[in-house]
Amino acid sequence: MSSNPKIGVSACLVGQKVRYNGDAAEFRTLSRKWSDHLELVPVCPEVGIGMGVPRPTIRLVKNDGKLSLINPKNGDDFTDKMLEFSEIQSDLLASSGICGFVFKKDSPSCGLDRVKVYRGSNPQAVREGRGLFAMVFTSLNPHIPVIEEGRLTDPKQAEHFLSRVHFFHEWQNIGNTGWDANKIMQFHNENKLFLLSRAPQMKRILGRMIATRFDEGVHPENVALEYMTEAQQALNVLTKKGRIAHTMERVLGRFSHQLTKSEKQEVVELIHGFRKGILPRSAPLVLLNHYLRRYNLNDKIMSRFIKSVPLEMGLMARV
Ligand code: SF4
Question: Which residues have C-beta within 8 Å of that of residue 200, sequence separation ≥ 6?
Fold first, then answer.
């Protein structure tokens, strides 16, 4: 298994000239800056169904409650082809081990939210839809984190999305030879500080879910899938500074007795500065990481929180 998480991406975002007019819509943060830390798997659903480049524009149309993908100029209907392609491709992507998907916003095939939907012959569209490929992918894979590239321009959203991708990647690495009860408990335990920092209620809820499902005799593979689906649903909300700062204090509490008074004071001040918005998250995290390494104390539970996104990506300095 690759050491970098694999993520699916709308092909035009990585610079492939596959848009209807023969252009790309390269999102360089992803295609150039982050590509050292992620394995990108480009997919263009419209090329995938044989539409070619260049091609006529298509749109989502709703008639009598039924959503279709139509060429408005001649009425050609691509709905069935797109649904069939999306089902097959979504299954292929999931079984190839992708840990997330970045979709191109506004596209009737790839857009995740607020995609234009036309009603009958009304020329005014309502922004209420989801592209057909994105719709099928997300309903078949509710456990895989997804986002549109527009939201990745916000460092907070980008950091949070990538932390969900890495959380998924860890889950995949542990489960790749099959799940059993011990592995699920191990994963939950190793991620308890991570969950505390992002969706604190989930530590208890998921712990209870695991116990109940095993009492009911549910197969471990199904428990693991339900675990990740519920966790990702809860993680689909941005975390708050206070939660992260509180978790840093918990980390410090685990080894503060090994630090000198001034070392401890230094970390406390940096956490305080981060909580107040004066310092970036990287300031206390880098120092915590430094002391954990110096005293040989780093364990999986703490590193899952401290390196929930690789520090080298530089995002922690911007949030
Ligand atoms: S938005 Fe999706 S369908 Fe459109 S060009 Fe990009 S990858 Fe292809």
Answer: 243
Distance separating alpha carbons of residues 226 and 206, to the nearest angstrom:
9
Per-residue confidence (pLDDT) for residue 120, from 0 to 100: 78
Task: For residue range 167-217, list pLDDT tens digits in order.
Answer: 999 999 999 999 999 999 999 999 999 999 999 999 999 999 999 999 999
The torsion region of residue 64 among left (phi > 0), alpha (psi -120 to 50) and beta comes to left
Question: Which residue among 53, 107, 113, 137 has the greatest number of ligand 1 atoms within 8 angstroms of its CB, and so is best to mutate?
Answer: 107
Name the pTM for this structure.
0.95
Residue 203: other Cβ atoms inside 10 A: 17
What atom in ligand 1 is closest to the CA of residue 111? 1
Looking at the DSSP bridge assignments, the partners of residue 40 are 7
What are the beta bridge partners of residue 103?
A: 148
- Radius of gyration (Cα) for the chain, nearest Å? 22
Q: pLDDT tens digits for 259-281?
A: 999 999 999 999 999 999 999 99
What span, in angstroms and rounded, lies between the C-alpha atoms of 281 and 277?
9
CB 181 within 8 A of CB 214: yes
- Written as one string, the DSSP assignment of 95-113 is HTTEEEEEEPTT-TTT--S
What are the pLDDT digits (tens) for 41-62?
999 999 999 999 999 999 999 9
Which pLDDT value is given to residue 231? 98
* Structure letter (DSSP) for residue 77: B
Q: Which of 69, 104, 146 to mutate to test the pocket of ligand 1 (most atoms within 8 A of CB)?
A: 104
Quick one: which of 136, 219, 228 has its CA closest to 179?
219
